[in-house]
């Protein structure tokens, strides 16, 4: 009787586990698609530092696990990172379905979870230097666990690598947080055997680097918490001999919100523990910086600013802007987007002329191929003669003088919306233009068509 009861319990548990595994497996692909949609929607709002598009491919759903590839494409590249337009970062993702992922069970973890995942970086044209630095091993591997309540835990394993004059040994970092990512985010990590080669005869080594941080974001805008970063057992070496040793160099940060106020207090502390030169101990030291009543919104506005570039296409008949685009990169893709919009807005005309200066984004092969495909003739200003393109120069002067604030915009998204408002709602619809006899571009065009 006892054996039958035990067998019944085991069978029941197997059925429950199997049903739970099937159900959680059905949630993986919709979850991936929602994450991608949210990421790409944020891109449209200008919330990313670079013009990136997220996608996935080769989704293979099994009973116990699902596999797919996640890829991030740099649409316009990232010149400051030497990333070309169209290059991708690709990850292999292997997701084990909950409620009891197999790998977690093997490690003795019986707490139910929505899923556990292994993420590996794929070796391609863009990431190949990372694999070379890690001696053809995967430079990073991540293990993620997602709880039903929205919390997550991530372990990031870092392979030993050598990047030019900088090298390090094995490392591991753990990240624990809730669904809002920055709220109650706990970070711990360690990297061993750090070497910075200053010259052929001089280098600095550290036995290890550790980080311990606990932070949260109050009301989605006030960062508070504390962190400690430490380099342990530092040696300064000249011609193979130890010149100086430091037991530890520690950097501490503490952020506290001012009670009932929209400000935070910042405390930065740097510690030098037991500096020794030769056989002489020089002691220890500490340096602190305290800043009170910091406005985090103002700090983000100041530190988050980057140059953004605007390309505009004018229809010279009434000086009306008919195409425009913005980007962090002043490349051919930017001007091509503006031309594509103008061509669509004007009903795909044939045999018109496009005039511009001799900038490389207008002389590039890609841009000229687009003109050829649209059957548009190209005209260019004489080198060094801005008057040949004076209508466009005048538009930008008006935009800067009449609309763009001297302090710039808080975000790329704010800039894009404000400039669109200027072009559509003010410049084209309301602003008098001397060329049109004092009429706005829209009104000038409308009167012309009524006469026909």
TrEMBL record:
Q: InterPro entries of this UniProt entry? A: DUF945 (IPR010352), Integrase_cat-core (IPR001584), RNaseH-like_sf (IPR012337), RNaseH_sf (IPR036397), Transpos_IS3 (IPR048020), Transposase_IS3/IS150/IS904 (IPR050900)
What is this protein identified as?
GTP-binding protein
Where in this chain does the record put each Integrase catalytic domain?
282-448
Gene Ontology biological process terms in this record: DNA integration
Which organism encodes this protein? Answer: Escherichia coli
One Gene Ontology MF term = nucleic acid binding
Q: Which domain of life is it from?
A: Bacteria
């Amino acid at each position: 009787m006892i054996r039958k009861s035990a067998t019944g319990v085991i069978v029941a548990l197997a059925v429950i586990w199997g049903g739970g595994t099937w159900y959680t497996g059905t949630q993986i692909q919709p979850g991936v698609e929602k994450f991608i949609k949210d990421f790409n929607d944020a891109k449209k709002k200008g919330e990313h530092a670079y013009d990136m598009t997220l996608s996935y491919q080769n989704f293979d759903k099994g009973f116990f696990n699902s596999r797919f590839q996640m890829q991030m494409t740099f649409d316009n590249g990232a010149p400051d990172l030497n990333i070309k337009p169209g290059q991708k970062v690709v990850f292999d993702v292997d997701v084990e379905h909950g409620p009891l992922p197999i790998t977690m069970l093997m490690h003795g973890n019986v707490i139910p979870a929505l899923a556990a995942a292994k993420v590996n970086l794929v070796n391609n044209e863009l990431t190949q230097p990372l694999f070379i630095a890690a001696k053809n091993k995967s430079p990073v591997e991540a293990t993620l666990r997602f709880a039903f309540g929205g919390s997550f835990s991530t372990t990031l394993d870092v392979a030993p690598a050598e990047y030019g004059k900088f090298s390090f040994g094995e490392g591991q970092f753990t990240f624990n947080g809730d669904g809002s990512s920055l709220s109650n985010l706990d970070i711990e990590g360690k990297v061993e055997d750090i070497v910075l080669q200053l010259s052929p005869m001089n280098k600095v080594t550290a036995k290890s680097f550790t980080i311990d941080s606990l932070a949260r974001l109050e009301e989605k805008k006030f960062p508070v918490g504390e962190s400690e970063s430490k380099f342990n057992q530092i040696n300064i070496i000249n011609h193979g001999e130890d010149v100086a040793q430091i037991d530890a160099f520690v950097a501490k940060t503490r952020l506290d919100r001012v009670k009932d106020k929209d400000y935070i207090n910042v405390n930065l502390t740097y510690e030098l523990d037991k500096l020794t030169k030769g056989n002489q101990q020089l002691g220890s030291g500490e340096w602190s910086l305290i800043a009170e009543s910091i406005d985090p919104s103002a700090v983000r506005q100041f530190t988050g600013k980057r140059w953004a570039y605007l390309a505009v296409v004018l229809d010279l008949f009434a000086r009306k802007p008919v195409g425009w685009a913005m980007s962090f990169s002043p490349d051919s893709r930017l001007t091509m987007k503006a031309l594509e919009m103008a061509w669509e807005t004007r009903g795909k005309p044939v045999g018109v002329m496009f005039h511009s200066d001799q900038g490389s984004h207008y002389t590039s092969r890609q841009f000229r191929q687009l003109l050829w495909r649209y059957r548009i003739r190209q005209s260019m200003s004489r080198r060094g003669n801005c008057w040949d393109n004076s209508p466009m120069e005048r538009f930008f002067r008006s935009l800067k003088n009449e609309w763009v604030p001297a302090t710039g915009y808080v975000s790329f998204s704010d800039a894009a919306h404000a400039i669109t408002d200027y072009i559509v709602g003010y410049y084209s619809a309301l602003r008098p233009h001397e060329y049109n006899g004092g009429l706005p571009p829209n009104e000038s065009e409308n009167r012309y068509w009524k006469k026909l």
